[in-house]
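Today's session is about reading a structure prediction critically. Students often jump straight to the picture, but the first step is always the sequence itself: look for stretches that repeat, for charged clusters, for runs of hydrophobic residues. Only then move on to the predicted structure, which in these notes is written as discrete structure tokens rather than atom positions. Here is the chain we will use throughout the hour.
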Amino acid sequence: MKKIATIVALLLPSWACTPSNNQQQNEAPPAAPAAPVAPAPPSPPPARTAPSAPAPKESLPEPKGPIDPKSTEAAGQVVQSYGALIEQKRWKEANALWGHNEIAASFQKSLSSYREVHLEIGNLGQAEGAAGSIFVTMPVVFYGVGRDEKPFRRPAEVVLRRVNDVDGSTEAQRRWHIDQINWGA
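Below is the predicted structure for this chain, in token form.
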């Protein structure tokens, strides 16, 4: 008896779900089976990405128009130009950004001992006046590869100077120029 009750319990749900003859006549015939779909080609392996480089240091903001050659922003451009020129080993042009030829030549000699030199630029300091001149300091890091293939990083401060528009000053003195570069600790 239990077997019959179990069989009825199993069949009852399927019988209740079976459509009546009237319902079958009103319904559309079942759709033909769809054509087999070709399997999708395997996806290519993920591309290898190079390890991410460290985020570059923040550089000077882009000028929003002509730059006043007397502004500290113009002093910052002198350092940017110097960095670009030493990377390309364009020493004559790089040295022309200095106010003192002998100091420029000496500094060139120390930098040219490296196989590769780059310049990381910090934020300009505040302009300060003294004895008819304006000075501004910018922290930098010289980095690259030595002749021995070892990397190097040397912090420094670039001191820029321009003479105020005083009687007897030359045009070259009134432009921003590198006055000195002091190596950091």
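Discussion point for the tutorial: The first helix runs from residue 2 to 17.
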